[in-house]
Amino acid sequence: MASEDVVLYGTWSSSFVDRVKWALKMKGVESQFVEEDLLNKSPMLLQYNPVHKKVPVLVHAGKPIAESTVILQYIDEVWPQNPIMPEDPYDRATARFWAKFIDEKCKEAVWAAIGPCTNEPGKNVEPALAALRVLDDHLGGRKFFSGDTIGYVDLVAGWIPRWMAAVEEFAGTKLLDPQRFPSLHAWACNFLEVPIIKDNLAPQDKLVGRMKEYREIYLAKCACS
Ligand SMILES: N[C@@H](CCC(=O)N[C@@H](CS)C(=O)NCC(=O)O)C(=O)O
Predict the structure, then answer these.
(1) Ligand 1, atom 11: nearest CA belongs to which residue?
(2) Assuming Cys at both sites, which of 91, 122, 127, 142 could form a disulfide with 109, CB separation 3.0 to 4.6 Å?
């Protein structure tokens, strides 16, 4: 597959974009990356994702696909080598359930607790700790959510080791404590050791800088409203 047939519109700091990048690497699919400025979105991004106007968008042979979890499933269907989804329909449904939990409930709770758009970072951590507890129990000491190798749930959960560490540093509040969440912490270490993940991560200090930029944008918006 020539790289001009597969184009990923994204931004370097987005965990939604990372999961798509990692999936393409897992499959060995060559792609072109178009860096978007989310404060000044390109006409191409607006044309390809007119509903949400967000990244990532994957354009394959001229056809756009939006929403990161939809893109992951598309990639797995088009390039079946190194499967991302489980084979069994029940296991697939279960993987989608956990991915949704991680992407919605868990991420929203963490963002509300320590994200840059929170009025008092570090104050309201209980919902985030409760969501992480559910994940820790669900993992129960397994190497990866998907078994011995990474799969759909691991890719979706990839923001936990990377992005959350940067937000923790930014907010000065640790949530993913190894004593409190031994399984989840061990999973995060295993995940970051996988070569395609390790070799495709934004540096932590750059991510912390991005959090500070988001904070400034948020505070400026609050001051206007
Ligand atoms: N549900 C979407 C979320 C994507 C998303 O929130 N992307 C952010 C970047 S991390 C974005 O494009 N934000 C631009 C905006 O909200 O205007 C997905 O899974 O792809």
Answers:
(1) 54
(2) 127
